[in-house]
Structure formats: C-alpha cells, structure tokens
Specification:
The protein is globular. It folds into two domains: about 1-65, no CATH class; about 85-280. The protein has helices at about 1-10, 15-25, 30-45, 65, 115, 165-170, 175-180, and strands spanning about 85, 90-100, 105, 110-115, 130-135, 145, 150-160, 180-190, 190-200, 205-210, 225-230, 235, 240-245, 250-255, 260-265, 270, 275-280. The longest helix has 15 residues, at about 30-45. The strands form four sheets. Strands 2, 5, 7, 8, 9, 11, 12, 14 and 16 form a nine-stranded antiparallel β-sheet that branches. Strands 1-17-15 form a three-stranded antiparallel β-sheet, with no helix packed on it. It has a three-stranded antiparallel β-sheet with strand order 6-13-10, with no helix packed on it. It is about 20% helix and about 30% strand. It has about 290 residues and is α+β, with helices and mostly antiparallel strands.
C-alpha cells in the first residue's frame, strides 16, 4: 500500500521541473568549506569509494563535478579478450536474457515492449536479441563507457517522464523505462549492432554523450530525434572508451542482435565494475541494414 501511494505521488509531482531545479543547484560553484562536508556526508551515506577518486587540483568546484568525477588510472581494468563485452558502468545487474520477440523483462511478472523502448523501425534490429539492465546507485561512478569495439553510427533521443528508478518503482510501474526520458546510442561492431540505452530518472539533470557535445537531456523544449551519421562522421569506440555520463543516478539497458552475445554466469542482483567482462560476442552475423542520415 505504501509503494502504491509513493507511485501515485511520483505520477502527480512535476518531475522534470524539480529535476531541472535540482540539476541547476548541483552545478552552482561552492567554496570548499561548504562543499567538502556535503561530499563527505554523501560519501558515507551512499558508500562512495573515495579511495578511487581522482581529485582535481583545488578540489571539486560543485556537487555535480564530484558526482561526474573521474577515477584513478588502474581502478577499472578493461577486459582485452577478443569479442569480449564489458560492463559500461559500475552498477548492479537487475535483469538480463533473451528478448522474446519484442518483450523484455522489467521485473518479476512485469515486461515491456522493445518497440516502446525504441519507437522506430530500428527496434527490428533487436527482435529476438539479448538485453541486460544495469542500475547505478547514487554512490556509483557515473561515467558511461562503450561495452564493445565499434563505431557510433547513430542515436535516438526521446523526451519523456523522469520517474525514479528505485526498486519499488521498477517493480510497481509497468513500462517504466519506456515512459522515462532516454538516449540510445547505436554502436556497429564486426559482429552486429549493439544499443546502449541511457534511461533518465528523477533528479538526473542531464545525460551527456561524447559524440555530440551540444546534446543535453531534460531541456525545457525537447523533441524526439533519431539520427544516423554519415560514414565519415562516425566516432570510433574501443571497449572502455568514455561514451557519456549521467548527472545523478539512473539505468543502462544494453541491447544486442539475435545470437550476437552469450552472457556470463551472472545472477540478478550481482554487481559489476566498468570494464569487467559480462559476455562474449558470437561469430559475425549479417550486418545491420545500412541507414541513411536523417
């Protein structure tokens, strides 16, 4: 009953406005004597691995600069095996497995549609494919990296709601990930097409990507846009290269074509580090259909 009440409250509050205000506040420069105690309190509460942080000269200038922090060299070891798929983030595996035609598991007893997640013909690339959902807690490192070697061939930016992605909401609101704002990066590999879906959430003031510095989620005026790059405009990614970042916590959904990946022996609830091997790409399949720039 309590969870139902919380879900109702989240449905009626102005989530996007509150998230924009919160994001703005976190970017305000603060003096060290004020910011440092806030960072220490936050780190203790959410279990931030402070020994891994690469502190900038002079310290962090804002809470957001702390939240989107870099880590020291060597903290993340990128698996170098041929055909390895690595975790793009530090996070928790919430769900993974086969996409049953277009149905994907959100939580026990709840599924959502691939076509709703990617409302364009591109969703057909992933029918009967595989997926993995990774949740980033407030204490996690929040930069997003490429899980595979390949080229960023396009993206799909979709405005939407900003419901929290805490466990009670994932288990209680059907189609949560298809309702929230999201940004999907398409990466073409020698084995097929992969998708990295970055799902916005309450207080995620921005989602940023390295291949489009002008892109920013949760704008006041937003529009749906799917775009494919010309061959000479595609950014090459090696696994572990930075792909983007969350400004506060959220969820990643990885997508792969049919028979393209074999996941490792994981269980839902397992935690993974960025660069850790989570699967192996199968023998090259028919490449995704070529798409014209839109």
């Amino acid at each position: 009953m309590a969870n139902e009440l919380l879900i109702f409250i989240f449905k009626i509050i102005p989530k996007s406005l509150l998230s924009r205000i919160f994001g703005y506040i976190t970017r305000i420069p603060m003096p060290q004597f004020l910011l440092s105690p806030v960072i220490r309190l936050y780190s203790r509460k959410f279990g931030v691995r402070t020994d891994e942080i690469l502190y900038p000269a002079g310290g962090f200038r804002s809470f957001n600069s702390f939240f989107t922090r870099k880590v020291k060299n060597g903290v993340h070891v990128i698996d170098s095996g041929r055909g390895s798929v690595v975790s793009p983030v530090d996070g928790r595996i919430d769900q993974f497995g086969t996409i049953e035609k277009t149905a994907m598991i959100q939580a026990k007893g709840i599924s959502f549609s691939l076509e709703d997640l990617i409302p364009s013909a591109t969703h057909l690339e992933f029918v009967d494919g595989s997926f993995m959902t990774l949740y980033l807690s407030p204490g996690d490192y929040h930069r997003i990296h490429s899980p595979v070697d390949g080229n960023v061939v396009g993206f799909f930016s979709l405005p939407g709601k900003l419901f929290t992605v805490q466990e009670f909401m994932v288990k209680g609101l059907t189609g949560l990930f298809t309702k929230n704002e999201r940004m999907i990066s398409y990466i073409n590999t020698e084995y097929g097409l992969a998708g990295v879906c970055k799902v916005g959430a309450m207080n995620v003031g921005r989602i940023g990507v390295v291949y489009d510095e002008d892109y920013r989620s949760n704008r006041l005026i937003r529009c749906r846009k799917e775009h494919f790059f010309d061959d000479d405009s595609q950014m090459t990614m090696r696994r572990g290269d930075e792909l983007g970042r969350f400004n506060l916590g959220s969820t990643i959904i990885l997508l792969f074509q049919k028979d393209m990946v074999r996941f490792g022996s994981f269980r839902c609830g397992d935690t993974v580090r960025m660069g850790q091997k989570i699967g192996t790409l199968s023998a090259p399949v028919q490449k995704p259909k070529s798409r014209k720039k839109k």
